[in-house]
C-alpha cells in the first residue's frame, strides 16, 4: 500500500511527546468497551509488558496511565498490582542515567517484583544499544516490529489508530527498501543497510565484537558504522565506515585506534603492525597508509580503499558483509 499519498497525522506529529500521547490514549481504551478492537490491543500490550499472558482487567477502571510522573514518560498501573515504567523514544537514545533513576521511583502499595520496565522505540536503532538497555539496564526493548505484531490495521477502524499503524508500516517499508543509487537514498534506507550488516555479523554468545552506528554532525555530515572493536593495553582498535548519503564526499573505511593511555602507545609501531597484519591477510585489497599525523583520542591508522563504496558504485550488501568479516579477522589476528 502506498501510504505517502494519504495525509497522516503522525508524519507531522513525530515527537516523543506525540508518541507518548498515542500510547497513553490507546492504553486508556482498556477501561471501556466502546471499541472492542482498541480494548483488545491495549490488553495485548499489557499482557506482553507484564509477562502475564492471562492478565484480566479487574474493576471499573483497571488501567491508570500517568504521564511524566517523576519525569517518567508513561507510568501504567494495572489492577492496582502491576506498575509499568515506559521510557518512550523515537530518534534519540537514553541518556544522563535516566533509566536507572526511574527504577528508583516507587509507589506505595506496589511491590518491587511487580514493577516492569519497558523501552519503547518506534524508529531504527543500533542493535547493540538494545543489548545495553536489556542486559545492563534491566529494561525490555519493545521495537517497531513488536508494535506491528500487535497493532494490526484491521483490528479497529479508528482513524487515529490506523494513522499510527500506517506510519509504522511506512517506516518499515522505507527501512527495508534497497539502496540502488550512489546518493539520494533516505536515512531510513541507510539505517536498514546498517541493520542488515548487524544481522550478518552478530556473533553468537560473543560480547567482544561490538558495533554501532550513528550520525556525525560536522560541516559535511555523514553516518558512521563502527565494528570489530578489540581491547589492547591502553587503546582499542576498530573499523569505521564513513558514509555520505548525499554523495558530496567519498565514502571511506578507516582502521582506527581509540587511545586511552598515550604513554602506552607508539603511533608508528601501532600503524605498522595493523597495516602489516591486514595486508598479509588480504594482499588483494588496496590501502591508503597515510593515516593522520597526530596522536589524539581517535587515531586513523590507514584507509582501506574500497571502490564499491565510492560514489558511482552504490552500496552492495554482499560486499559489505565480506568487508566486515575480513576487517574483524584482521583485528582479531593482530598481536
What does it look like?
- The chain is an alpha+beta fold and 335 residues long.
- It has two domains: 3-175, Trna Endonuclease, Chain: A, domain 1 (3-Layer(aba) Sandwich); 187-333.
- Helix content is 36%, strand content 23%.
- The protein has ten helices and eleven strands.
- The chain has helices spanning 9-12, 16-28, 36-50, 98-103, 127-136, 144-150, 159-176, 187-201, 267-281, 317-333; strands at residues 63-69, 72-78, 82-89, 115-121, 140-142, 212-216, 222-232, 235-243, 252-259, 286-288, 298-305.
- The strands form two sheets. The protein has a six-stranded antiparallel β-sheet with strand order 6-7-8-9-11-10. Strands 1-2-3-4-5 form a five-stranded mixed β-sheet.
- Strand 4, helix 5 (127-136) and strand 5 form a beta-alpha-beta unit.
- Helix 7 packs across helix 8, helix 8 crosses helix 10 (317-333) and helix 9 (267-281) crosses helix 10.
- The longest helix is centred in the middle third of the chain and has 18 residues, at 159-176.
- 26% of the residues are buried.
- The model has no long low-confidence stretch (mean pLDDT 88).
Enter the CATH topology name of the largest domain.
Trna Endonuclease, Chain: A, domain 1
How many β-strand stretches? 11
Q: Which overall shape is indicated by the principal axes computed on the Cα atoms?
A: elongated
Characterize the largest beta sheet: strand count, sense, and whether it forms a barrel.
Answer: 6 strands, antiparallel
Sequence stretches where pLDDT stays below 50 over 5 or more residues: none
- Portion in beta strands: 15-25%
> Strand order within the widest sheet?
6-7-8-9-11-10
Under CATH at level 1, the class of the largest domain stands as Alpha Beta
Number of helices: 10
**Protein structure class:** alpha+beta
| Helical coverage, percent range | 25-40%
Radius of gyration: 24 Å
Mean pLDDT: 88
Amino-to-carboxy terminus distance: 53 Å
Order of helices and strands: HHHEEEHEHEHHHEEEEHEEH
Amino acid at each position: 500500500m502506498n501510504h505517502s499519498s494519504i495525509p497522516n497525522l503522525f508524519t507531522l506529529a513525530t515527537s516523543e511527546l506525540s508518541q507518548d500521547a498515542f500510547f497513553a490514549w490507546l492504553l486508556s481504551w482498556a477501561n471501556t468497551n466502546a471499541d472492542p478492537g482498541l480494548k483488545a490491543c491495549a490488553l495485548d500490550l499489557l499482557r506482553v509488558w507484564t509477562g502475564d499472558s492471562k492478565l484480566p482487567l479487574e474493576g471499573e477502571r483497571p488501567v491508570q496511565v500517568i504521564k511524566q510522573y517523576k519525569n517518567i514518560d508513561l507510568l501504567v498501573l494495572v489492577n492496582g498490582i502491576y506498575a509499568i515504567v515506559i521510557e518512550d523514544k523515537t530518534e534519540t537514545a537514553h541518556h544522563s542515567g535516566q533509566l536507572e533513576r526511574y527504577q528508583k521511583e516507587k509507589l506505595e502499595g506496589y511491590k518491587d517484583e511487580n514493577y516492569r520496565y519497558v523501552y519503547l522505540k518506534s524508529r531504527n536503532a543500533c542493535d547493540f544499544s538494545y543489548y545495553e538497555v536489556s542486559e545492563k539496564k534491566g529494561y525490555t526493548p519493545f521495537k517497531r516490529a513488536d508494535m506491528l505484531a500487535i497493532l494490526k490495521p484491521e483490528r479497529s477502524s479508528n482513524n487515529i489508530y490506523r494513522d499510527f499503524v500506517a506510519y509504522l508500516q511506512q517506516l518499515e517499508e522505507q527501512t527495508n527498501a534497497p539502496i540502488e543509487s550512489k546518493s539520494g537514498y533516505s536515512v531510513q534506507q541507510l539505517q536498514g543497510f546498517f541493520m542488515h550488516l548487524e544481522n550478518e555479523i552478530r556473533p553468537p554468545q560473543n560480547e567482544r565484537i561490538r558495533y554501532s552506528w550513528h550520525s556525525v554532525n560536522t560541516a559535511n555530515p555523514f553516518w558512521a558504522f563502527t565494528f570489530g572493536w578489540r581491547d589492547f593495553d591502553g587503546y582499542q582498535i576498530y573499523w569505521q565506515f564513513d558514509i555520505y548519503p548525499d554523495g558530496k564526499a567519498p565514502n571511506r573505511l578507516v582502521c582506527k585506534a581509540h587511545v586511552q593511555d598515550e604513554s602506552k602507545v607508539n603511533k608508528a609501531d601501532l600503524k605498522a603492525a595493523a597495516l602489516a597484519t591486514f595486508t598479509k591477510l588480504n594482499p588483494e585489497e588496496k590501502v591508503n597508509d597515510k593515516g593522520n599525523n597526530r596522536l589524539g583520542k581517535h587515531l586513523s591508522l590507514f584507509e582501506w580503499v574500497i571502490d564499491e563504496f565510492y560514489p558511482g558504485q552504490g552500496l552492495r550488501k554482499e560486499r559489505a558483509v565480506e568487508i566486515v568479516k575480513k576487517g574483524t579477522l584482521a583485528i582479531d589476528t593482530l598481536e
